[in-house]
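HUMAN: Forgive my ignorance: could you write out one protein's sequence and backbone structure tokens?

ASSISTANT:
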Amino acid sequence: MLNLLNPFGGPLGLMMNPQARQAGSEALGGLRELGSDPDFKRMFQFGLIDNGVLVAMMLMGLSMDEWIAKKVGVKGYGAVMGAVIGNAVSDGAAALPQGPASAMGVTAGALVPAVPLFAAMYAKKPLTGMTHKAIVGSTLALLVWAYMRKQNGGVA
């Protein structure tokens, strides 16, 4: 329905339209309900800690790229390793409120896909060509394996 006082909607449109006002109220009520859910609060905290630490670690790795390139002899590992190690550290930090076993489990699991990266870095291989394909392939294989395991809810 066209509102002649405010044809484009907005706050005035909400005030003038009872159905829109009711829908908005229900949506806010749903958000309030979601915000009081303990799982939502726990996972919100996890996400906040996780990505906060991840961004800091990735930027730290990016700033160390030249130093890492000098040590390894190949450019491009700084941001990648900052992100991979940062992800493992941030996952572990975010899981700490759930207990030390959860934190250690998620950190160890997050570091497993880094093994091919460490191997390529140790071999001083650039992250291009066959090295790139091998890392992508091994990562995809690990993902398939993780999803197919019975204890993780997979079908195997």
